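Troubleshooting log. The previous structure file for this entry was overwritten by mistake, so regenerating from the original sequence record. Sequence copied from the archived sheet and checked twice against the printout by T.R.
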Amino acid sequence: MEHQRLKSREELPEATKWRLEDIFADNEHWEREFAQIETLLGEGKKFEGHLGDSADALIACLEWMDDLGMRIGEVYSYARMRRDEDNRKANYQALTDRAGALAVKVGSATAFVVPELLSMPEGKLAEFRSSSPALKLYHQALEDILRKKEHILSSDEEKLLAGVGELAEAPSAIFTMANNADLKFPAIEAETGQLVELTKGNFIQFMESPKQSVRKAAFMTLYDTYGKQRNTWAATLNSSIKSDVFFAQARKYPSAIEASLDDDRVPLKVYDSLIDTVHEFLPQMYRYVRLRKKALNLPELHMYDIYVPIVPETTMAISYDEAKAMVLEGLKPLGSDYLKILQEGFSKHWIDVYENEGKTSGAYSWGTYRSHPYVLLNHQDTLDSMFTLAHEMGHSLHTYFSNRAQPHLYAGYKIFVAEVASTLNEALVMEHLLAQTKDAKLLAYLVNHYLEQFRGTIFRQTMFAEFEKKTHAIVEEGGALTADQFSDIYRGLNSQYYGEDIVLDPEIALEWARIPHFYNSFYVYKYATGFSAAIAFARAILKEGQPAVDRYLQFLSGGSSDYPIELLRKAGVDMETPEPVREALQVFSGLVERLENLLS
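Regenerated output below.
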């Protein structure tokens, strides 16, 4: 039998590759733009210290800054995406490094703007804004800067904080090196009977093994290895939390959580409401856990039985062309304008479809303001790859609509809403498949796949969010966190979230030690809120049709022209109320019942 070899990039058909020439015709054009940015950097000197001279001087500076941002975006994206085509190519490694260094220079050259704006007498800036129509464009951007004025310190203090900022990266850097470079796991016995070295990469594969002994071995081995350095992990995470608290206090915020939420101007009640609403639906989670125990026919369900599919995977071979057809069919409820742009993305070289030697793994959506969006895939003929296509094209159409409707200044959207469009696409395609599928085994597999998305995105991320809230509160009240305290809090949350029908293996109490997200505090809740907002949109679109579609497309076109909470509210999803999360979890409840019926 012939060994299947990964193709080189040159062997793949041109029709399956993205066309980065739509950003720069060739490397020579890229070099010219690079040189142009270097020239433009020097112009900052003429603006520095003069923003208060006149409205025209302020506008000229803001235009210069926006133009630089657009240009560096193109230079960096092109270089990085070229490198992603084949990471072994030294010329594109060099282009990416140079673009990264130039981006740092752009940041330095424009760093004077915000402090100078904030030190300007309020009356003068207000006068400029009322007398100059051209400043209307900058209203939202200026508001976003001015509202943080009370949290911006003097110039000398800001320099001091910036210096401390590098030290504050230490816990994350130490965790990353220890976790990725130094940590080695022993080998375990795989299903085949062979000894295979456990890695963070293959851990989940082992946890999905149909053999419970393999799952248990992977679980015990992983946590036994982390446990050997439990005090080091605790000291590192404790330092990271102390750093969050220090910066929040330095910037005069009541708490670290409020300092973090203020970046997106998200009220604290959104975070608290998410946790409260998920608690309300924990009985449905317990019901799902009971169903898992019954379906797997286990006398005891353990924490290492959480990932194994209840329904064995059905081998559906879905070619790329079939995947495109399925996505188009599933997204019909979004209307002809959306589908037309989706078709354009499929046919006009937005997408780099197949894996090749040296290509970056995974999938992403990216692009530049003046070009169309791009999608990197590594398509396999599987159901998961079809959902990945739907997901990434959701991001890309969000970008497309925002770019089309907004000036460059407001085209980018905040992370708080970044997962809404991608998840909505997946939800609509899933709803379509659930409605169309006749095969009972495939239907059960799809329902289980969907339930796992809810468990992983709403329940698990909210549990993480609650862990962050509890641990930061202890430090804010003057306490310190040891390995035992971290583990006690984490064990308690697992007990609360999974219920009595699962054996709470002592090792799970150490899971906090391996979660990299905890070094980027108060971030994970956005996965849960974004997923909930997407499900709310999907339900409205399927129920109401065109009026809901119109509101949704208006949201996609919003970019960052308003705060994320406001953009969602205008489109009919109010994250300050429990309703979107409650509605999503009602869908979860319905799916649990559906799977119970399918498996009975």
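The CA atoms of residues 332 and 339 lie 7 Å apart. Archived copy saved in two places this time.
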